[in-house]
Amino acid sequence: MMKGFIFDLKNDGQNKIKAVIKNGTEKIVFDSFDPYFYLEETSIAKEIESMPEIKRVEKTERIEDGKLRKFLKVTVRDPSSVIKLRTDLEEYGPREADIPYAFRYLIDRDIYPMKYYEFDLKGDKIKKEKDAPQEEMKLKTAAFDIETYNKEGMPDAERDPIIIMSYANADGCESFYWTKNRSSEKEMLLNFLNRIKRDNPDVLIGYNSAGFDVPYIKKRCAKLDIEFDLSKDESGVNVKRSAFSTRADTYGRFHMDAYDGVSFLTSIGAMSIPKIDLESAYKELLGKTKLDVDAVMMWKMWENGGKELETLVQYNKEDSIAAYEIGREILPLYIELSRIVGLPIYEISRMSTSQMVEWLLIRDAFKKNIIVPPHPTEDEAQARMMNPIKGAFVKLPKSGLHERIVVCDFRSLYPSLIMEYNIDKTTLTKDKDAHESPMGHRFSKKQEGLIPHMLKELVEYRMTVKKEMKKHKRDSKEYKILHARQWALKIIANSAYGYMGYGRAKWYSREAAESVTAWARQYIHETIDKAEKAGFDVLYADTDSVFLKLEDKSVDDAKAFVASVNKTLPERMELEFDGYYTRGIFVTKRTGGAAKKKYALMREDKTLQIKGFELVRRDWANVAKIAQEQVIKAVLEEGKPEK
Question: How high is the pLDDT of residue 103?
Fold first, then answer.
């Protein structure tokens, strides 16, 4: 028996999975698994059985569009045959022929990467596995960075050499460089690659390394007749370019492009930076700065040597150190997302939240014997996106300076509505005894939908994790692991609504998505009406929040109002008292009237909450942000905007 977790896996020939199991040490193991897909049941079963690619054809029943239907399960001899046959047999309606072989293996075997199992091995073959107690995951991490000769402007790997490289890990940072009078590019590259081989990190971090560093190194190595292989099985470095991104995969070693991680965090609103470069990310995530040089003059600094070369070498080292620290900051989140979604960590690092939601739903569909719907055609996706769903309600704020403000908001409004009313593509019904949305769509009370079920599991698990967090000190390893876990759960749960209305989603449902926002508008309108009847002046409302001006009322009156609203809400919904603010300012637009989502509030301890001002915009210089914050703070402290 071997205790460990699956770190990486891939197809290794005919119906064979090749996986890397880690737990301090590592072992490459194999498992057999037959690829398959489904066809609508027709009279062609006997005809296709004779096709050389097909191993067997079985009759089966699966649920599709809420009904139990008959299908043919077509098992093939090689994973590549699935791709060929889904085209050859297109007229017979292939289903689930777009699920990658390695993902299919994980789903059918109910295995989650980055989760500990006890593996029963016979040599290097997996006989079976069972759950094992979870423990701290120890992964060796390192980072790297390169500088290139750029006398002609944008560097070209066919022409311009790499002049400096660096390698950072827990022990420090090492530089590799050459000059016209010392060493050579080839010797530098060999020393750098040998350093990686000796250290043998599990995770190799770069910043924009998939888009630039790795492809550049690969081309320079090819030009200099150097073998460039960062994998654990001598399969090389696989660089794939698409219209939107570049991947650089190394089997058995997670090449982590921290640029993707920072982009992901900005996309979910977890951080806001002027631009997604290394310097901005380093300052935002770690509160640190690094040496800067004029990129245009790097070639000149290298040629001049001396102090200028020393500065350039130090700059490169600090790039590697910054990438290392950023990567280490994001890695725990990737680990937890991989465990939750059930896909390899290198795949998770390149996914959007909608893709993560979809793969969770695919797992759940398999367990419930449901056929996974196909992706829409490009025309269908474009048509969906050209017809947007009506969004949330916004009550424009009363512009100017206001005092004694209370903010209340609905806790996780969209996920709560989805769970409360069982909103899902699979629960749409014509039954009269159903949840009817303000849009007139009905959702079954009898059969739980895929997305509501997923959300309940995520929310309940997160509550358990947060309770466990209270048992540990905030600076402990246990607390940090649990914090990453609850954060990962929150990210996926908050993405469920967006997935419903995403034009390329397999389980896209306009009816479901517009019902969520319609119910949200209904509840925010009702809350505004109740607040006004209770004597509060409603300054502003947006999506799930209401801003109340107390006037002659007290904070306790506001809390009592929140409690009274909660008595009327369904079980899974809750209005929360978010906070009391001594003053707030809502600004006007240049065209007149108040601006949406542009305000600043001051707490009793003089700290600020700012939304929409240039202070938190990406495209403003730091000096402008600092100046504006000082002006806002002065206005809110003194209560005299005319000053």
Answer: 97
- CA neighbours closer than 13 Å in the CB half-sphere of residue 113: 25
Residues of the chain with pLDDT under 50: 615-616, 618
Instruction: Give the pTM.
Output: 0.92
Q: In what order do the strands lie in the sheet with 162-169?
A: 172-177, 162-169, 141-148, 203-206, 254-257
Report whether 319 contacts 291 (CB < 8 A): no
Q: Please state the domain count of the chain.
A: 3
Q: How far apart are CA 30 and CA 37, in angstroms?
A: 22
Residue 45: domain span:
2-125
Answer whether residue 119 is part of any domain.
Answer: yes
pLDDT in tens, 75-115: 999 999 999 999 999 888 899 999 999 999 999 999 999 99
The DSSP output letter for 410 is E
pLDDT in tens, 192-231: 999 999 999 999 999 999 999 999 999 999 999 999 999 9
CA distance 643 to 638: 9
Residues contacting residue 439 through CB under 8 Å, at least 6 positions apart: 511, 514, 515, 518
Q: What is the CATH number of the domain that holds 410?
A: 3.90.1600.10
- Token digits for 166? 């660096």
CATH of the domain at 106: 3.30.342.10
Helices of type H across 54-153: 79-88, 101-109
- The DSSP-derived string for 527-570 is HHHHHHHTT-EEEEEETTEEEEE-TT--HHHHHHHHHHHHTTS-
Query: Which pLDDT does position 246 carry in this prediction?
Result: 86
Q: Where are the beta strands (DSSP E) in 265-355?
A: none
Q: Are residues 245 and 321 in the same domain?
A: yes
Contact 77, 382 (CB under 8 A): no
In a domain, 454, yes or no: no
In angstroms, the CA 20 to CA 7 distance is 6
Q: Which of 314, 341, 368 is the last residue of a domain?
A: 341
- Does residue 440 belong to any structural domain of this protein? yes
Q: Do 54 and 156 lie in a common domain?
A: no
Cβ(527)–Cβ(546) below 8 Å: yes
- Predicted confidence at residue 637, as pLDDT, reads 74
- In a shared domain, residues 175 and 33: no
Q: Which of 125, 150, 185 delimits the end of a domain?
A: 125
Pair 264, 382 in one domain: no
Q: Find out whether 166 and 174 touch, Cβ atoms under 8 Å.
A: yes
At 43 the pLDDT is: 67
* Whether residue 155 is found in the same domain as residue 115: no
DSSP state of 476: S
pLDDT tens-digit profile of 251-280? Answer: 999 999 999 999 999 999 898 888 899 999
Going by C-alpha positions, the residue among 550, 533, 549 that lies closest to residue 541 is 549
CA 164 to chain centre: 32
Provide the pLDDT for residue 589.
67
